[in-house]
Design goal:
This protein is an alpha+beta fold and about 160 residues long. The protein has a domain at about 55-120. The protein has helices at about 10, 20-45; strands spanning about 55-60, 80-90, 95, 110, 115. The protein has a 5-stranded antiparallel beta sheet with strand order 4-3-2-1-5, with no helix packed on it. The longest helix is centred in the first third of the chain and has 26 residues, at about 20-45. The chain is extended. The model has no long low-confidence stretch (mean pLDDT about 75).
Length: about 160
């Protein structure tokens, strides 16, 4: 094994001289990648401007049992309400006029949780169908089986 000579230039690794060039190329790669990703995001983004007095639907998360109304799984409603906007709290948050049955839920929502209401009375789903317990649980009752089918396996 040979020891490095006393010349300080020889003891500096070779990549040290190309480091500024490497940093510039990494920065360029990062900016082009972020611009590329931003172009895809901008295609789906839409700025939603709601006004005081407008009616909106409230988005319900079907996989969270806290706000699951009436049906379970794929058939559960994605939006409930229509609720009036009382005020604009910030650029992306709105205060809604919720009924007294939903007083345990905070009344300020992000704009992504709201869907603009196009006036049609058939859209309204009443939260009266479900009685929430104090721990936000509810009981489900089977009403009627609509269809039943027995499938046989094919023999090959």
């Amino acid at each position: 094994m040979s020891l490095p000579s006393n010349n300080s230039y020889q003891s500096i690794p070779r990549w040290h001289h190309t480091r500024p060039c490497m940093v510039e190329s990494v920065e360029l790669y990062c900016t082009t990648t972020s611009d590329h990703q931003k172009s895809y995001v901008d295609l789906k983004r839409k700025d939603i401007e709601l006004h005081t007095g407008d009616n909106v639907f409230l988005k319900v998360s079907p996989w969270k049992k806290v706000l699951c109304f009436s049906k379970k799984g794929k058939l559960s409603p994605r939006f409930i309400g229509s609720y009036e906007i009382l005020e604009r709290v910030s650029l992306v948050a709105y205060r809604l006029a919720l009924p007294s049955k939903l007083d345990k839920i905070h009344n300020i929502f992000h704009v992504s949780m709201l869907q603009w209401y196009k006036s049609d009375p058939s859209h309204v789903i009443s939260p009266d169908e479900v009685e929430l317990q104090p721990d936000f649980s509810y009981s489900e009752e089977l009403i009627k089986i609509l269809a039943q089918e027995v499938k046989g396996l094919r023999n090959k």
